[in-house]
Amino acid sequence: MSGLKQDIGLTQGIGLLSTSLLGTGVFAVPALAAQVAEQGSLWAWPLLIALVFPIAIAFAALGRHFPNAGGAAHFVNLAFGPHMARVTGWLFLSVIPVGLPAALQIASGFWQAAFGLGPLGLQLVQIGSLLAIWLLGMRSAGSSANLQVIIAALIVAMVVAIWWKGGITLTEIDWPSYQQLSAGPMFSALAVMFWCFVGLEAFAHLAAEFRHPERDFPRALLIGMLLAGGVYWACTVAVLAFHSYGGDMAAAASLPAIVVQLFGSKALWIACLIGYLACFASMNIYTQSFARLVWSQAHEQKPKAWVAQLSRSRSPLNALTLVLICCLISSLAAEYLALPLDALIVYANGIFVFIYLLCMLSGCRLLTGRSRVMAFIGSALCVLLLVMIGWKTLYAFAMFALLWLILPRRKEKVVQSH
Questions:
Q1: 257/274 Cα distance (integer angstroms)
Q2: Where are the membrane-spanning stretches (predicted)?
């Protein structure tokens, strides 16, 4: 797909993906994993990275051979034709009504913790966050990448400061033996922890904006994933060392509580600011990805349409404006209907896993050699995750079936394997 500015380098790509994966999870998931598996969660993170690696390699291969702003929908188009691609694209966009309101609620919650804001103040924070994303969208993806590299550095710096001030060293970590591990808690922890690695499909939409996509996109994806996994593991070590989990403590309050314990109450606003920026970074890459998907679909069907036009910086600003308006309406509706946060997250996660599965199946058809083997393994893992989610995947299946029936069909096109 031509037109978008190609100005993302390797370091910027690592920052984009790592902040996308860390997002809201870096403050909450280590405590949730520790609550479920306790010391066993130290082994759960390396195990999860090993399980997700096949999916990451398949995504890296797809992005390397087929860089396109359409992302997952483009891969599916090449493998299974335009009808399935449109279904996949709209399925990805169906995350907006449930996923973005959840992310905005979590992000504004850090402002509430730091400054005690009321409902009106929280609403203004959410609107301000969307406005900031729109302002970033006025420039190319490289500008967002530069900001997210800084946010990634702040998250890493906070974890390093906790380890340093808390006197945590690698030699003192209490690794449980194999005999001490229990399968039930480990599997439950893995089910929770997997959501930390939701974000690969959003990153795929930016492959066409790398200066050297064939070289740097796979490297950024794999390095960013390992960096995020390392940060999650380090946070889990800190949470376990200070026993900052369980009881009446909210999961997202675990790391801020450690910061206050080590550096005093005045440091709370710093931890909350970093928490908000982590959420903002995740929301930014997703909304920018949504915009690129909308733009790519419009550009293919109606190149002269308003939503298919690029800004002077060659970014899909019109498509981003449309996406953010939908986000704002969805957020206001979720607040008016008082939809529970956990329900919003679960329904969004079901769609993400479904899209992962479609991408892995596309990889099985498009890729060759070791990459195809990784795609087959990734497909099996996605099926297992859908089974684990259970009936809560009904939203994803219902949306897929509805889109399959109502979207028009066109002539299919299949490409050769790479």
A1: 14
A2: 43-63, 84-104, 110-135, 147-166, 186-208, 220-246, 266-286, 319-339, 345-368, 380-407
Residue 355 in domain: yes
CATH of the domain at 341: 1.20.1740.10
CB-count burial class (<10 Å; 0-12, 13-18, 19+) for 270: middle
Which phi and psi angles does 210 have, rounded to 5°?
A: -80, 145
Question: pLDDT for 155-199, tens place per residue?
Answer: 889 999 999 998 888 877 777 776 666 777 777 777 777 767 777
Helix, strand or coil, per DSSP, at residue 278: helix
Burial 113-139 (b: 16+ CB within 10 A, else e): bbeebeeeebbebbeebbeebbebbeb
Chain center to CA of 197: 6
CB 359 within 8 A of CB 128: no
Label residue 409 left, alpha or beta by phi (over 0 means left) and psi (-120 to 50 means alpha).
Answer: beta
- The count of structural domains within the chain is 1
Structural domain boundaries, residue 312 = 10-406
Whole-model pTM?
0.76
Q: Which residues of 323-338 are buried (b: 16+ CB within 10 A; e: fewer)?
A: bbebbbebbeebbeee
Give a yes or no: residue 51 inside a domain.
yes
Contact 36, 192 (CB under 8 A): yes
End-to-end Cα spacing for the chain: 18
Which among 115, 122, 132 is positioned nearest to 332, based on CA atoms?
122
Q: What's the angle, vertex CA 405, arms to CA 415 and CA 344, rounded to 5?
A: 95
The verdict on residue 283 lying in a domain is yes
**Amino acid making up residue 342:** D
The sign of the torsion formed by the CA atoms of 244, 348, 138, 109 equals negative
Alpha carbon 208 to chain centroid, angstroms: 18
In a domain, 418, yes or no: no
Higher pLDDT, 411 or 387: 387
Tell me the per-residue pLDDT of 194-224, one tens digit each, with 9 for 90 and over: 767 777 776 776 777 788 877 888 888 888 8
